Amino acid sequence: MDYRRFNLPDFKAIPRRDYLLAVLSGVLVALSFPKPALSLLAWFAFVPLLMALGKKSPASAFKLGFVSGMTAFAGLLYWLNIVMVTYGKLHWSVSGCLYLLLVAYLALYVAVPVWLMQKGELAGISPLLSLPVIWVGLEYFRSFFLSGFPWASLGYSQFRTLPLIQVADITGVYGLSFAIILTNVVIYRILRGVFGREQAGYPTRAVVILLVMLLAMAGYGFFRLNQTEQGELFRVALIQGNISQDVKWDPAFQESTVATYERLSRQAVADGGADLVVWPESAAPFFFQSDPVYAPRIWNLARELKTPLVFGSPAIEKDEQGRHYLNSAFLLSPTGEELGRSDKIHLVPFGEYVPLARFLPFVHKLVEGIGDFSPGKRATPLNTGKGVIGVLICFEGIFPDLSRAYVQAGARLLVNISNDAWYKQSSAPYQHLSMTVFRAVENRVPLVRATNTGITAIIDSRGQVRGATRLFQEATLTGNVRLGTGDTFYSRYGDLFAGLCLAGTAVMALFSFRRKKS
Length: 518
Known about the structure:
The chain has about 525 residues and is an alpha/beta fold. It is built from 16 helices and 12 strands.
């Protein structure tokens, strides 16, 4: 490509200043997420990167975007090293290499959008259109490609901006990502027009469109926030046992673990009763189905409390293929009978199973466990007698399609049980919480989460966190929610908006490459 035809020089050597601007964008993006959750930064975080890009070639844009993405995701996912070194027993050098490999993969989701944006501009497509569409399309692609890793999608940075996130019941989290990227591009165009050497002109039409869109989102948000929740009142008691990960699976500590949950459950129910008691993921660190000592104690506890009890425990199934281990949640009735079991569908790669294990015999799981887990077959809601719940185990809460599947199957309350002890005192538990907020808004059902070491929380159908515990403390959290409707545009049609952006990305990429050949 002869860039001189378009008066667009191909910079072979990118100035250090531009690399610094790309790094600055990455830092601003990382800071917009928990912690410290400076969400306002996201609305102009990419402006330094766009200033660095200017009229550079697509190749140069890719390099700068990659640097920015590496900076952002390195800052957001540093806690992975805690898991791999402390619990995976990997040497820090091995952990660092794996960490950088994942960060480099995720950096492509910044590099490729700006690369395609620059190619599109050569073909006559305005960045005001191309970058928001491409960004959302590839962010959506990241949510399912290679089993999916939608951690830290851009819109999640706004989890506390209640008026704006209400649009998630139409567009999902991707509507926020679109608005943030469009805002960044408009701010950049304004600055380029005001301070640039070449007068790019004030993008009046783009500013008007952006303001109308943001006002519409805010107006819809306030409308939703002012609506009265109509569902039946449902009282939950969430138990945070704070069992150290170092002893969690040690049989010598099973007695103290069960005793802790018994004591805290009695305390929580005595404070005002409950329609459901919730224990975290693997709160019962043994095979509940066959355990002769501790399983009867849990049955008797449900009878004593006269309250349905849901808790995490590994399960086992046998068929003609052999024995299968499952990460499961069991529901007991107030009389101690087992009402049902929900199995984890989306397993953690290298944590609960080894992808392509047949071809990677030298790779072992990074965390402790009983054996390789098998995924559950389907979303199975559980009926407590007063309300139907959908149980999301661990990081299933970051996958919108799973929450939607439970709601479509009849769940009117989402229950997230997790064990975030792996992350210690890092930002990961806060990031995890921020993403589950959107599951409540998307489907207009409340979401409650019980975690081993925190953050245990109650989130209403508007996405407001009505109560939360601190990290690494024994705690109980009780409160009332209203069972949701589960009847939203998003619950009916899913990620239609993001899917259209992905299709638009493919069309723009095809147009840009065909234009190049011609």
